[in-house]
Amino acid sequence: MQLLRASTLIAMFVLSACTTMQSDKALETQVSTSSAAELLPPRPHHKELVDLGPPVDLWDRIRRQLEFHTLHNARIGSAREYYLKQARYFELVGPRAERYLFHLVNEVEARDMPIEIALLPFVESAMNPFAISNQRAAGLWQIMPGTADDLGVRRDWWFDGRLDVRDSTTHALNYLESMNEDFDGDWLLTLAAYNSGKGRVQRAIKRNKSQGKPVDYWSLDLPRETRRYVPRLIALSTIVAFDQALEVSLPQIPNAPAFAAIDTAGQVEMLRAAELAGLELVELRSFNPGQLRWATAPNGDGKLLVPVSIAESLATTLAELPDSQRVTWQHYRIRRGDSLIRIAKNFDTQVGLLREVNNLNGNLIRAGDTLMIPDSAAWQQSLALAESGSTGVRRGYTVRRGDSLYEIALRFDVTIVDIISWNKLDPGRYLQPGQSLTLYLAGD
């Protein structure tokens, strides 16, 4: 096995070396002349796998099922270098992967999809469930608002399923499976369609057919981002397969669940739940990024994700928690000129909620009366840190002449995807001297 891996790796690097002197344009346009079916290795059937004993860790479990790692061409080689040049990439995304990757692997295996699909959030969001693109794609799987609506993803004032780890994974995998049927089981075309849209890939296929050209992924004229997107996932497969030879230190991730879902037994403040769990609010938020407000929805599904080690005890505590200790209210004395809309905005709440808890039938309020308002101050204080995907310190940075995303990420030990997410940048546009960026840096 080691000899086979070594020979495969040597062949891969020889091919890569032959292409390193080519221009960027050549790297983008060079494609394999083989069909997608010829390029893909046979799918391993789990029942036919040799019994190697239990996996050492989650990476070992993934490594045993990889399918794309033997593919190589210049575009894949360039994508591999994209990751390898970010010296601390895996170290930085490791804490996120430790929270979410086991769940992704479980869900992908249950559907008998290529295991590489579980690595797709590395490409999409650097495993940051709070990531929001400049086009408003959100979450681990970067689901667009329109796509979310088509897929039936729950999105309301209290909750965004695109950010929720379980909901987003379920809907993203459903979407991928559906498109895979449309592309006759070709996963490379499916992945391209996930990135740029099914219609765009289908039009590219139709165009190639009319010109008598091959219609595999490598032969299609697709947007620049999509030409890089699929190779990056394949490159990750290669890095996981050959991590030691590539001198990549993958973060330690046990082959065990990091979280469990518990019933809240009614609406409860996130801060109250965190206190009862013995967690920092920012940590509870990291398991529940889909929760948008200071408390769970009054009529929601009543579920929270928490570390496995405390799930049973916290569920019992919440079940016994009286209503009077679930939500903290503050009293606000109405001033002249106030309106429900203005008060709701100031306190990050809803007009409808203010009406409900104060027994109001309409919008009429009187100066001097008192309103009950949910206390969301602590939640607001923790929100920025949680959404940064870091417990780090916020810092401003002004782009200098000659700066690139890669150089800034390397200088401050963050990932390129994080910089894009924090600043809602368009990855296809160049940074401009004088441009202001926000970074979240680890403390000393």
TrEMBL record:
SUPFAM superfamilies named among the record's database cross-references: LysM domain (SSF54106), Lysozyme-like (SSF53955)
UniProt xrefs under SMART domains: LysM
Top-level taxon of the source organism: Bacteria
Residue ranges of every copy of the LysM domain listed in the record: 330-373, 395-439
Recorded family membership: Belongs to the transglycosylase Slt family.
Protein name, UniProt field: LysM peptidoglycan-binding domain-containing protein
